[in-house]
Specification:
alpha/beta; six-stranded parallel β-sheet; 11 helices; 12 strands
């Protein structure tokens, strides 16, 4: 994708160069209507994503850029190379503050680690909208920080839905779980939702649950090891599609195609292809494009009026070969 390559190049160069929701009015920003969100003004919005190595965030980036162009808003979009790099995200945010952006959209690489970034934005009078992964409420309180809004999916419900669909497919059986990065809210909630629903249903035995850090290669290696220790596994829930696809490759290399039911999360294009090919049962779908554009318009609402909706949920559903992509 030409656009994605361009954004990735910008992100890499930028990376090298460099409370709880307490109500919108507490977090800075003009809120005086001096510039218009419909294109009559000249807002500059900083966007800091987890990484652009993940197709999910490439899709989000493209949507934000397109919406910004439509509204006449300047988008400064940057990201670290790795989703584990909270320090680089902090450097990017500090750089955006120096550039005096009007607002910052953040998908945090660490629910606790990035809370100080919100405080830096508060001190600079720059409103922050958090997207996809929540900042830890206790960490926000400890830093005396607030954000103006959160936009994301109900990850806990998504995990529950994955367990329900796994139980429908297997009836009963042994399952493994691939977790994201330890401590990240989206991983915690997806895995907790799956585990809690599995326990409630009583038909799924979770025999292994290990982190693979949202990474496809780690998903391959970790699930390879799980398979060696548990060759009788019937199913796998991976908390994102990259890890699921890595596991699919491990299943193929073990000569176990068709023997293990795999459900991922994010419904990326590669996962959709794997679903159509019968390599995955499905993926819990959310819309990174909707999340991105909603976060942008929410920030613009705040800049325009000094208020905005504070907690916005984007629907999730199970994408399978029989459902519409």
């Amino acid at each position: 994708m030409k656009f994605a390559k361009k954004i990735l190049a910008i992100a890499l160069v930028a990376g090298l160069a460099l409370g709880t929701l307490a109500g919108c009015a507490n977090s800075g920003g003009s809120g005086d209507g001096s510039a218009a969100a419909d294109g009559n003004g000249s807002y500059k919005i900083g966007v800091v994503l987890k990484s652009l190595a993940n197709p999910f965030y490439v899709t989000m980036a493209e949507a934000i850029e397109a919406k910004g162009e439509e509204l006449g808003v300047e988008i400064v979009l940057q990201a670290p190379e790795k989703e584990t790099d909270a320090e680089k995200q902090m450097q990017i945010i500090e750089n955006l503050i120096t550039q005096q952006v009007d607002a910052i959209l953040l998908t945090p690489n660490g629910s606790t680690e990035m809370a100080p970034a919100a405080k830096k934005c508060n001190d600079a009078g720059i409103p922050m909208v958090v997207v996809d992964t929540r900042l830890d409420e206790t960490a926000l309180e400890e830093n005396g920080a607030t954000i103006v809004a959160f936009v994301g999916s109900d990850n806990y419900y998504g995990g529950q839905l994955a367990a329900e669909e796994m139980a429908k497919a297997l009836g009963s059986g042994k399952v493994a779980v691939l977790e994201g990065i330890g401590g990240q809210e989206s991983s915690i909630n997806r895995v907790s939702g799956f585990n809690d629903k599995a326990e409630e249903l009583g038909t799924l035995e979770i025999v292994a649950s290990q982190p693979a850090d949202w990474d496809q290669e780690k998903g391959y290696t970790v699930f390879q090891n799980i398979l060696q220790a548990n060759p009788d596994i019937d199913g796998l829930f991976a908390a994102n599609d990259l890890m699921a696809l890595g596991a699919v490759k491990a299943i193929e290399d073990a000569g176990m195609e068709g023997q293990i039911t795999v459900i991922g999360f994010d419904a990326t294009d590669d996962a959709k292809a794997a679903i159509q090919e019968g390599k995955m049962l499905g993926s819990i779908a959310q819309s990174p494009a909707d999340m991105g554009t909603t976060a942008l318009t929410t920030a613009l609402d705040y800049l325009e009026t000094g208020s905005c909706e504070e907690d916005i949920s984007v629907d999730v559903y199970m994408l399978s070969a029989d459902s519409e992509a």
